[in-house]
Amino acid sequence: MRYAIVDIETTGAHAKGHGITEIAVVITDGTTELERWETLVDPGLNIPLHITHLTGITNDMVHSAPTFDAIADELEEVLSGCVFVAHNVGFDYAFIRGHYEAIGRVWSSPKLCTVRMARKLLPGHASYSLGRICEDLGIINDARHRAMGDCAATVKLFHHMLATNRAADVVSGMLKRGERESWLPQHVPTSDFEALPSAPGVYRFLNKKGTPIYIGMSHNVRHRVRTHFNGSMKSARRQAFLRDIYCIKAESCGSVLMARLIEDELIRIHWPIHNRAQKSIPIRTAIVSYTDQRGFKRLHLQRQRHSKHAIRWFRREDDARAWLHAQAVLHKLQPELLGLGSDGRSQSIGEDRRTAHNKAMHTIIDAAQTRETWAIVDRGRTPEERAIVLMENEQVKGWCYTDATVKRFDEISELIELKNGSATADAIVQHALYERELGKISFDIIEPTA
User: Fold this and answer.
1) Is 77 exposed, middle or buried (0-12, 13-18, 19+ CB in 10 A)?
2) Are 326 and 287 in contact (CB under 8 A)?
3) pLDDT digit string, tens, across residues 223-270
4) What's the pTM?
5) What are the residues facing 379 on neighbouring strands?
6) Are residues 170 and 113 in the same domain?
7) Considering all CA atoms of the chain, what is the largest pairwise distance in Å, rounded to the nearest integer?
8) CATH of the domain at 73
9) Are 43 and 20 spatial neighbours (Cβ–Cβ below 8 Å)?
């Protein structure tokens, strides 16, 4: 088998918006160097001063160098038929693939990461950066942060690892189609992924300190986590995101509804840096009351994301209008005073009707604001377990998991763990009720007996 050990120098830390300034490739059969190839590259961009201080590559040095387009054919020929190997392979691979894409070409290769190999074959080191691991092993690098210097050091490291007892099995496993080492972030052990449930749940990406940097949910946690690591690594944010992940934790929640509620709660506790904002809260139709200049109590429809000042709110405007029409008919009130506008036949209400009108309006408002409690009974995390969500009108008051058989509403209060609640949690339940109406999900609803 032939391996292409690759190292590149660049104008910045991510492939999107930055260019390659130098490429070095060493072809090896795993024990002996077969070929070396290197070139400076004109990135078409100014090289930042701090990059020049790090690598020693100046703008003058690359001024007359070929562009990537000019060396693309030769580089592809050098890499052809080889396994692409690099220290933190995702970085070098993303840059080279991105540069081919920029000139309208598709390039791909099987790849190995010497960071992951070292963690498997050379355990116990404090750091697996190229400089530190080479220092530990006595590998000399006379040109650090230049492409061929780092490339040659990586070759020696690679040869050293291939000479260990388990090397053949480790390399074979990493090269298998879909092998997780090829797409998992470099610091994440495969055992973390193996432990993920293929069921509804919540997952957390943790940094080196064990702090959640991203929290998500899915109806299939394992599949969703896998999708985070698909595709390109071009953007700086994505590269930083993957580089910061050291551990993946997850928990089954039993149902999508519970996964969404627990995700919302965990995000509000930890506010992870890569959850840019809390989940978007849907805009709903609220019914609010006010008193006009003539002293008449009136209702008004308005679209808002919260239930503040609302006597009732509805997911759909049509439902809100239907409720108002029903109140107008029931209490013999003019529709336009309930926020429904005029059909052209109504006449202005006289001052002598104000007291009766306002009395009827207070009756409507009091009834709308009556605190109605009810509960959702959903699937639990095991066949025997049930999840219970306690609601007060349209607001989430709390939830719990229980193995107890719950048949009556009055059995719930002692089981429920009260929560702080949020507008997002309320919207999650309303969306679940809508999905239940459509037959997409199922759960039971328990109400107090009269």
Assistant:
1) exposed
2) no
3) 999 888 865 555 666 777 888 999 999 999 999 999 999 999 999 999
4) 0.59
5) 386
6) yes
7) 103
8) 3.30.420.10
9) yes
